[in-house]
Amino acid sequence: MNESPDTPQPEARKDSLIDFPSLFPIKVMGAKAEGFVHAVTSIARQFDPGFDASTVELRESKAGNYLGVTVTVTATSREQLDELYRTLSTHPMVKVVL
């Protein structure tokens, strides 16, 4: 069935479902190794100069071989978050970014 030009079209989808700026938690997982937490927090600080390291949450895997690091950054744009995810994902110590 063809729609006529007078048929209302659905509103264009917003570019992002996040309202900026906002606090945005990111979970990063990697092997439990010296320097891992520092590497993750350093990257977070590159993208959020006001990053507060006291908000970092750590969680070890059941066997203690892996570490989950949750950093909460102030997200200012989708581009900032995309680049932050890319930078974290390509770090050699990082296994997964959620």
From TrEMBL:
SUPFAM superfamilies on file: YbeD/HP0495-like
Domain of life: Bacteria
UniProt xrefs under Pfam families: DUF493
Family recorded in the similarity comment: Belongs to the UPF0250 family.
Name of the protein in its database record: UPF0250 protein GCM10007320_47620
